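Slide 14.
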Amino acid sequence: MQITGNTILITGGSSGIGRALAEALHKEGNQLIVAGRRKSLLDEVTAANPGMKSAVLDVQNLDSLPAFAAQIASQFPSLNVLIHNAGIMKTENLNEPSADFSVVRDIVTTNLLAPLRLTAALLPHLKRQPRATVITVSSGLAFMPMASTPAYCATKAAIHSWTQSLRYQLRETKVEVLELIPPYVQTELQGQRQATDPRAMPLADFIAEVMQILRTQPNAREVLVQRVCPLRFAAEKGQAAWDEFFTTLNDRMH
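Slide 15: predicted structure.
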C-alpha cells in the first residue's frame, strides 16, 4: 500500500485503534474520513486534526450501507482506501441458557456482516480508481481464540478467511487487499481495564510499528506487529503446542 496521497474512509474511527490509525495516516498526507456512530466523538477527532472529515455511520444498520457508500463516493470522488475497523468485543458465557442472544447478533453484524456489505457497496467505485486498497482488521484471536469471547473470535476468524477470498477474486484488478492483525492492545474495546492493562501493547507503540510496516513493506498482505506473531503462527507448531498455548492463554486471561 502506498501510504500517502490517498483518500481514506475508516469505520470505527472515533476512538481506539481507529482514531490512532486515522491520525497517523492523516499526518502522512492522506485525506481521512472517520466514520462512527457518535457525532460528538467524531467532532472531537476532526477538531484535533484540522482537515480531517467525518461521517456519522451506524454499521449495524446494514440496509443503510449502500446509500452511505453512494453518498461518500459522491462527496469524495477520489476515495480509494477503505479500512474496516469498527468492532465489538463482549464476553459470553455459553453455559448460561438465558444469555441475551442480541449480544451475539450485534457482534456478528458489526464485525462481519457490515464489512462485507460496505465492501460490496463501495467496490465498483474503488475499481474505478487508478489504485485502491481494502483493509480488514481481524485479530490475533482469529488464530488463537479467547474462550470468554467466542463470537468475537469467530467473526475475526471469518474476516481472515473472507479477506483471503476477496484478495484472490480481486487479483486482476487495481484493488489490493490487506489484513491488519492486532494483538491485545491498550484500547477501550473491552472497557477501561483493557486501556490500562499492562499485559496489553501500548496503543502508540502498536500504531508506530504498523506505520513502519506500511512504509517498509508496501507489498505486505498481512500487517503483523511482532507481538501478534505467536498467535498468528501458533498452528504451525503442531496440535500439541497449539493446545498448550490455548490452555495457557485462556487460563491467564480468565
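Speaker note: The CA atoms of residues 94 and 204 lie 34 Å apart.
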